[in-house]
Amino acid sequence: MRALQASTSYSAGFGISAAAPPPRPSRHRHVILAQVEPSEKSVEIMRKFSEQYARRSATYFCVDKGVTSVVIKGLAEHKDTLGAPLCPCRHYDDKVAEAQQGFWNCPCVPMRERKECHCMLFLTPDNDFAGQEQAITLEEIKETTANM
Amino acid sequence: MTTSSAFFSSLLNIPTSKIPNMDTPLAKIKYPSRRRTSFTHFHPIRSAPDSVSIIDNLPAATSSSAPSSSATTTNSVILDDDSVNDDEVKKGESRVGVKVRVKVPLKVYHVPKLPEYELTGKVGVVKQYVGIHKGKKISANLPYKVEFVADEVLGRDGKPVKFLAHLRDDEFEFLD
User: Which reaction does it catalyse (chain A) (predicted)?
Assistant: First the structure.
């Protein structure tokens, strides 16, 4: 059987159907990232919470909204996986136990009692990195975390 | 079959040499770059919060002394940590009910009816040690839950307002 594997240039004059196989799409093997994307609903919940808590505690978001966005997404991811928004900037031996105990559930105890947020989500006005805003939109979150 | 290339060359006025060999079906074309005969590295695709799990997967041949020693180090660190923390936990839990005085400058913002409250020098009672929960170690860095009374403000029922504050063990001294 004649395998007509002529390239397109040959078929031009003869009407031979160019059975050239289409170039195989380069299969980028998607590396499974360590963190799965949080659900949009959780991101929205944590975004609203962050805005409301910043207002209530008289703290401000960082001048770099990327920082704020990453933390909000981290909180949303923990909320999805553990049921409680565990502080995303810390390492835990047993996340489930920590979420149940609640010390590091956002707003964590150091934030509630001393207004110390080492994630730089809630910044007191005297902080060098504190901006003027207590609000962030979903678009801002998506834009600033788009490269991840 | 064999005449196919000659056929094309004659019709298209292209030298035979330039016409690809039709006899070889394309399926046989090999892509040598994609051949994977041996893995020397295992791609850490999955999430691994602790480094111990990745190190375990390295084949013995390629594991140099560094990763294997760090694996053992990690293991030993965990063991040591547990015994150290057990002491801490026992010490903390034994101090429940002891009166303490805050010795560092400290302000809290969570007292009801008070936007800011200075805790320095105040005396309170240890209510709980929060470093352990259902037998599991918790990473709280302010493990002592101390109850204070805010004399300056009166609650709804006329009594001074009580509140709890979390403290580190170097922020206060025991009054016993």
Answer: [thioredoxin]-disulfide + 2 reduced [2Fe-2S]-[ferredoxin] + 2 H(+) = [thioredoxin]-dithiol + 2 oxidized [2Fe-2S]-[ferredoxin]
Question: What pLDDT score does B160 carry?
Answer: 87
- Those residues whose C-beta lies under 8 Å from the C-beta of residue A19, and which sit 6 or more positions away, are A4, A5, A6
Say what angle helices A65-82 and A40-57 make with each other, to 10 degrees. Answer: 120
Per-residue model confidence as pLDDT tens digits over A31-61: 555 557 899 999 999 999 999 999 999 999 9
Q: Show the DSSP H helices in chain A as ranges.
A: 8-11, 40-57, 65-82, 95-101, 109-114, 138-144
Which residue of A114, A118, A124, A126 is the best one to mutate when testing the B interface, meaning the one whose CB has the most B CBs within 10 A? Answer: A114
* pLDDT score for B10: 66
Handedness of CA A139, A143, A146, A148 (dihedral sign): negative
Show Cβ contacts of residue B123 under 8 Å, excluding neighbours closer than 6 positions. B99, B100, B101, B148, B175
Entry pTM: 0.63
**Are B136 and A91 inside 8 Å of each other by CB?**
no
Per DSSP, the three-state class of B17 is helix
Rounded to two decimals, the ipTM of the complex is 0.72
Measured from the Cβ of residue B148, the count of other Cβ atoms closer than 10 Å reads: 22
| Tokens linked to B142 | 């302010």
What value does the mean pLDDT of chain A take? 84
Residues of chain B contacting residue A92, judged by C-beta atoms under 8 Å apart: 139
Name the DSSP letter for residue B23.
T
Contact yes or no for A6 and B8 at CB 8 A: yes
- CA distance to partner chain A, nearest, from residue B105 (Å): 12
